[in-house]
Amino acid sequence: METATAQQIHNQLIRVLRRGGRPAELITYAPEFVDLVWPAEAGMPRQAIHDRALRAHRMLTAAVAAMEQPHSEAIGIMLCLWPGTLGLTLDQRRERAARLFGIQSDTFRRSAHEGRLVLNLSLEIYQRVRDRHDRRRTLPTADHDGAL
Predict the structure, then answer these.
(1) CA–CA separation, 32 and 88 (whole Å)
(2) Are 77 and 118 a contacting pair, CB within 8 Å?
(3) Fewest beta carbons within 10 Å, which of 7, 47, 93, 145?
(4) Which residues of 1-33 are buried (b: 16+ CB within 10 A; e: fewer)?
(5) What pTM was estimated for this model as a whole?
(6) Residues 64-102: pLDDT tens digits?
């Protein structure tokens, strides 16, 4: 199984920003993100998109939580992960996130702020995807008689 690249994750996160990173939004607007960070596994019982979206959301939330403040809070707002953010437009979420840094939303939108947040989150998710992939590759397998 090929693992996702950091660039692929970054590109998908930009799409996730539009509608948010909660499970229903991932299923509806960004199923490619789910497929990328929590793909259905060959040889395993078919995992429904719903189950994988829940796991992708948990991975996304954990990656956001691993970031330092106020970066974690800002990207959580941008991704509609925190209470009271789901109904907000992307521009409204940018305004809230920008306030955490004491800047205007137009300034926040530049690559030095929003772009860097998304890049850092992409790399955090990429690390988690790689770690998961590496753990699965190194699990012991049964030989022909079923013994380990």
Answers:
(1) 23
(2) no
(3) 145
(4) eeebebebbbebbeebbebbbbbebbbeebeeb
(5) 0.84
(6) 999 999 999 999 999 999 999 999 999 999 999 999 999
